[in-house]
Design goal:
Helix 9 (283-286) links the parallel strand 12 and strand 13. The protein contains 14 helices and 23 strands. The chain is α/β, with parallel strands linked by helices and 494 residues long. The mean pLDDT is 90.
């Protein structure tokens, strides 16, 4: 009978934090395996030492490289893949011979651990069992003695090896943070926390739970002294004395949720929404947001923009952090202009106002079909609620005469069904019936529909308020491909 592979989590470094089950399995095993660096010492083995019974076979899996310099023909990644394959085969020989193998893992075997590379290679052929361990995150938060996450707060675990821009985005968007894999990445991690405005909230924990544990504010750490076994911990705002309190003067931030899909909402907007005390907006857009407990939600009709802006500014003047919510981008036919217009009045000059951009519908529809906005284009709303139809028609004529691509917002609604037909008639006075038109409905949303047609074949009955039209220029081309039409406007001028 084949032996069994055990992935045994040892916890963060203190032998007393090894679980009772892990200790029992380590003592009973025929073979004890562990990874180590070229110097041969293994932290995992030293943690497990009190539970070894002596006389057991030990398999020391020594990494061939510890930095990314290697003469292996496949480079660093190739050297590691060969090493993992050879190591797995060494363990498989014991298992095939009927010997139980314990592979020691610092922390937890499936949490940034070398064990998983063996597990993936052996789990299909042998019986395996994983014994979870206390992670370095738990040990580090215990070391600083501050609650890490409470209530609805989220914890984001980040490897310090991510690119700087990605680190900053994660640090801004998360509540509580744990950053692993420091060592050579420390300065980049520290600078990213500083750029995200969270350096003063961060703690540094070195060799958590061991007799040489060090804990100090991150800003006081000397980068020259940072080992790999160290971590940055940022407690969630509820329990972090350094978290920025809401500005006493309040603020209004106008945010764009993007066109419909949550993944197209920017991290900066998500961060602004999370930090807001009050959410203000049209009820349909607010329905896309799950408010956290304690947030006040003020939904309104879509026709009261000036009143909504004044309401938001009044809340902010009394200390609230107000997010005014638009779909798409707030500066494109949305709430940013209304807020700016009201905020320009002298009585609101002391209230902070800013705009957090979003992916607008024109860009989302364009991306969904290719690149129809690849050259000069105009953006025009067909709604005549705030400007007369004659002005709209005149602007469309000028844009088309100038051979611009035209993105048409608000083309139709339940109470306004005639304008798409009027638009088509107007276009046919100037362009040929085969001019490319893209019809995008609910792009990014659950009812997304995309269609490529022509001015002559445009059916007004298929266009409603959730539709955006892109009317091509003379250079815009639609190509039928197996995955759907590809539409583009070349950047070189004909």
């Amino acid at each position: 009978m084949a032996g069994k592979l055990w992935g045994v989590g040892l916890g963060p470094g203190d032998s007393d934090l090894v679980t009772v089950k892990a200790a029992r399995v380590i003592e009973a095993a025929d073979v004890v395996a562990y990874h180590c660096a070229r110097h041969g010492n293994s932290i995992a083995r030293s943690v497990a030492a009190p539970y070894l019974r002596g006389g057991q076979v030990e398999e020391r899996l020594m990494y061939p490289v510890t930095t990314e310099t290697t003469d292996h023909p496949g480079g660093y990644a190739g050297a590691l893949q060969d090493f993992y394959g050879e190591s797995a085969e060494r363990l498989a020989e014991h298992l095939r011979a009927g010997r139980d193998v314990v592979l020691l893992a610092e922390g937890d075997p499936l949490f940034f651990s070398s064990y998983m590379h063996m597990h993936k290679r052996l789990v299909g052929d042998f019986d395996t069992e994983i014994i979870p361990g206390v992670t370095s995150v738990s040990a580090s938060s215990a070391a600083i003695g501050i609650p890490l996450v409470e209530g609805e707060e989220t914890l984001t675990v980040v490897p310090g090896t991510l690119p700087s821009a990605e680190l900053v985005a994660r640090f801004r968007a998360g509540d509580a943070l744990a950053v692993l894999k420091l060592g050579r990445t420390f300065v980049r991690v520290r600078d990213a926390l500083d750029a995200a405005g969270r350096l003063d909230e961060a703690w540094y924990v070195e060799r958590a739970s061991t007799s040489v544990q060090r804990v100090l504010p991150l800003a006081e750490v000397n980068p020259e002294d940072v080992p790999y076994f160290s971590m940055v911990v940022v407690p969630g705002p509820r329990n972090n004395p350094h978290s920025a309190a809401p500005a006493s003067s309040g603020e209004v931030v106008v945010v764009g949720l993007g066109p419909g899909a949550d993944e197209l909402t920017t991290p900066a907007v998500q961060d602004d929404l999370a930090r807001a005390t009050d959410l203000v907006g049209y009820k349909t857009y607010l329905a896309r947001i799950t408010p956290r407990p304690g947030q006040r939600v003020h939904a309104s009709d879509n026709r009261v923009e000036a009143e909504r802006a004044e309401f938001a500014l009044d809340l902010a003047s009394r200390g609230a952090r107000v997010a005014v919510v638009s779909s798409g981008d707030p500066g494109v036919f949305a709430m940013a202009a209304a807020v700016a217009e009201v905020a320009a009045e002298p009585r609101w000059h002391d209230v902070a106002v800013r705009v957090s951009p979003g992916v607008t519908a024109a860009n989302a529809v364009a991306a969904a079909v290719g690149a129809p906005l690849g050259h000069d284009f105009a953006v025009i709303s067909l709604s005549d609620r705030l400007k007369p139809w004659e002005l709209i028609a005149d602007r469309i004529r000028h844009a088309v005469t100038a051979d611009l691509v035209v993105a048409v917002y608000n083309p139709g609604s339940a109470s306004r069904g005639w304008q798409v037909g009027a638009l088509r008639d107007l276009l046919l006075e100037t362009v040929s019936p085969d001019r490319v038109v893209v019809v995008g409905r609910d792009v990014g949303g659950p009812e997304q529909r995309l269609r490529t047609t022509t001015v002559g074949a445009l059916d007004p009955a298929t266009v409603d308020m959730r539709t955006l039209l892109i009317i091509g220029s003379s250079a815009t081309t639609a190509v039928a491909r197996s995955g759907g039409d590809l539409v583009y406007t070349p950047r070189h001028h004909h």
